[in-house]
């Protein structure tokens, strides 16, 4: 009986329940502190400061960095304003990267590459998002302009005296050498009929 009372009064005995720490503000303060620290890792200069002060040689601090990987989950990621911090948090899990960031030259290199990423990310992203315009068809060569029309020169009238001279010399052909149209008052000059009349005349002679 006495031993039972001693065990009840001694909180270090195995049978006693463990006290669970509970944040007074339901973890809000812890959430904000860890969010601020994780976002500080987006700055290569701050990582260089941690390496120079040998934080990366502390095993407890290395375990804390591994614990902070829960910020990569979607329900926590939505609170992060500087997404580069998650990239550097992933790199800090590698011991070679932690040791390299202690050198000032590597810090400047990381900072320079980060600047170029911010500078060109939007343009590179738009190349894959926006639809590309269709290639324009090659413009056809312009059609040659038509030649200007030749000026029409008026024909000078032929005087009446010239008509008389041509008619007298017989140089003007008949306008209708093969006869007049049907119904005309003038007689026809049929070649076949004229030939038959000549044969008749020869017989009579």
From TrEMBL:
Residues 189-205 have a biased composition (Basic and acidic residues). Keywords: Activator, Nucleus, Transcription, Transcription regulation. Residues 1-24, 137-157, 172-205 are annotated as: Disordered. It comes from the Eukaryota. The keyword Transcription applies. GO terms for biological process: regulation of transcription by RNA polymerase II. One of its GO terms (molecular function) is transcription coregulator activity. This is Mediator of RNA polymerase II transcription subunit 31. It comes from Populus trichocarpa (Western balsam poplar).
């Amino acid at each position: 009986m006495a031993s039972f009372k001693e065990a009840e009064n001694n909180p270090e005995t195995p049978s006693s329940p463990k006290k669970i720490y509970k944040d007074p503000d339901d973890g809000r303060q812890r959430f904000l502190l860890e969010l601020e620290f994780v976002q500080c890792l987006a700055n290569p200069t701050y990582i260089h400061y941690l390496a120079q002060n040998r934080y990366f040689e502390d095993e407890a601090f290395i375990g804390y960095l591994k614990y902070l990987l829960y910020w990569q989950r979607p329900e926590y990621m939505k609170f992060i304003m500087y997404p580069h911090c998650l990239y550097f948090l992933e790199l800090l899990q590698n011991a070679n990267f932690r040791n390299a960031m202690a050198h000032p030259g590597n810090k400047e290199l990381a900072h320079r590459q980060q600047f170029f990423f911010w500078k060109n990310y939007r343009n590179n992203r738009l190349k894959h998002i926006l639809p590309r315009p269709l290639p324009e068809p090659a413009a056809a060569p312009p059609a040659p302009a038509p030649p200007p029309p030749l000026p029409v020169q008026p024909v000078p009238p032929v005087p009446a005296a010239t008509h008389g001279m041509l008619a007298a010399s017989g140089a003007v052909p008949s306008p209708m050498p093969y006869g007049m149209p049907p119904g005309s008052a003038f007689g026809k000059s049929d070649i076949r009929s004229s030939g038959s009349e000549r044969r008749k005349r020869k017989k009579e002679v």
